[in-house]
Amino acid sequence: MEDVRLGEILQGRLGGQLEAERGVREIRKKRLKGDVAAAKERAKTAELTLATISGLLKIEQENVNNLKAENERRQAEVLNEGAFGTVTVVEHEAHGSFALKEVSPDAAKEVGWAAMQEVHILIDLMGHDNIIGLKGFDLTIRSMPILMELATCDAFDVLEGGYFYSVLQKARIMRDGVCGLIHIHSFDLVHVDFKPENLLVVKTGRERRGKVTDFGLSRSRGTMRPSMTGTATYMPPKNLTADMPADFDQDAFSAAVVTLLMLLKPTIQANNIFALNSLLTEEEAERAMLIDRRDEAAEVAFQTEVMKRTLADGSFERNVLVPKNLHHAVPSPEKVCQWLKDGLSVDPSNPPSTKDLFDNLNDLIERLTGN
């Protein structure tokens, strides 16, 4: 993996400022649903964010030169590692800690394209409280480093924490995530891969804020989304087997799945909540026992098949999406189950809505806080 000097990224030599300025100009050109005032407001927000980034990037040259290499970049922890590359915690003596995302040298070229797309989208979306912050990047070298705001954890860690996080904290993190999706949709973009790992939690003081990340698979609304693009566990059934245009309801379904996981009792968790062992038919249970657990593709294919059935025949709704399975602290569980059912709707005449999910989460938070 090519070494990237953090001091250089922060100093702005890697072209981040230039691209950010281009992003501001692009935002100025946008006319979101004919709302010129909204477009101007977004441009203003982007300019303010750019000013903040520029202030961070203006490091005295002599100070940068005097920094020792071990202080410029120190790998404190690998946050994520896979075929695409790595996300690493990096620290700078003067400017604190960041997340550095780099493409693996042997990654497929599609991964590089995804990295370029992610940078361009982050520039467009920057400045929003529920989108992870972009701090710098360089698309001219092979590792395509992207320097981002460092999160405390992600929503998957929150789920793994069980009872450590309160229902109120989980609901607020989810509301933030849905708010981020609504912002993404205002740019006519569909995230495509919203899941717990892509909802980061940033802690500032005593406050935890959810922020959406990872835009490598995102699509413009209406452009073709190949089947199985995303993560099967969180995808609506219609996207599991057929190519179809990307649309906002697909993100809304994914967000409803994550919301359900947040509100269920911590004891009710699975790789695919729609394919719990208790939902399997006798024939499916026999087939499940024969699957080689090392064959991930076969297991995903099986779970996907079961997921489609349990959503279509109502067995998931009857056996899992019921008040007794929600966390004991969830108020009005019957009402919550009803709006979760709406969020997981597979009826094309009644598609899920991020706006409805946001309003319902807001109502839940008000009930939990007594406001």
Automatic annotation (TrEMBL):
UniProt cross-references to SUPFAM superfamilies, sorted A to Z: Protein kinase-like (PK-like) (SSF56112)
CDD domains: PKc
Protein name (Swiss-Prot/TrEMBL): N/a
PROSITE patterns found in the cross-reference section: PROTEIN_KINASE_DOM, PROTEIN_KINASE_ST
Matches recorded under InterPro entries: Kinase-like_dom_sf, Prot_kinase_dom, Ser/Thr_kinase_AS
Alphabetical GO biological process terms: mitotic DNA damage checkpoint signaling
Residue stretches in coiled coil: 29-79
Keywords: Coiled coil
UniProt organism field: Ectocarpus siliculosus (Brown alga)
Chain ranges of the Protein kinase domain: 73-365
Molecular function terms, GO-annotated: ATP binding; protein serine/threonine kinase activity
Gene: PK
